[in-house]
Amino acid sequence: MARPRPPARLSTLLAAFLAAVLALAAVAPAGAVEREAADPDAPPTASLPPPAGAPPAGEVYVAETGHYLRGAFLAYWQEHGGAAVFGYPLSEEYRATLADGVSRTVQLFDYARFEYHPDLAPAGAAVQLGQLGREAMGALIYPPSPPFPTAPGR
Question: For the chain, how long is the longest CA-to-CA vector?
Fold first, then answer.
């Protein structure tokens, strides 16, 4: 049996949201100078060739996207659901100045941005997920909606 397709409006909204999230990864925080296309600090998204032999211990080459996973990001990805939860890596690790103004090592995935917080390593939480939705929505506030009316007989 064929899998039902989501409504066209939902697909359009999801595509727009994903485009906005990916665009955020390349946007500098407010007040920062815009990056040039050849900037070495831009996310390294070009696919890399597979290793000639076996990759070093603690490193995995993901052939689906041509990117490597290593170290703490590899461990977090494997321990918390891998490709089924986060998708495949879309970039290599790189340094980025995040919304809080701190420069951190990050890596982009299909459904997440991993951030390395060395100050949280002793607590076992060195890898954090980026707050992409919060960054995308910024200061946008929705007015509170009235509660649903009570159904008769309840």
Answer: 70
Over 70: is that where the pLDDT of 154 sits? no
Residue 24 and residue 78 in contact, taking contact as beta carbons nearer than 8 Å: no
Q: How does DSSP assign 7-65, residue by residue?
A: PHHHHHHHHHHHHHHHHHHHPPPTTSPPPPTT-TTS---S--PPPSSPPPTTEEEETTT
The per-residue pLDDT for range 97-127, each reduced to its tens digit, is 988 889 999 999 999 999 999 999 888 899 9
Predicted TM-score (pTM) of the model is 0.64
Q: Alpha carbon of 142 to those of 16, 23, 24, 55: distances in Å?
A: 19, 23, 21, 48
Phi-psi category of residue 97: left, alpha or beta, with phi > 0 → left and psi -120 to 50 → alpha: beta
- AA identity, residue 144: P
* Torsion angle of the four alpha carbons 102, 133, 48, 118, in this order, in degrees rounded to the nearest 10: 30
Number of helices (H), then strands (E), belonging to the chain: the values are 4, 6
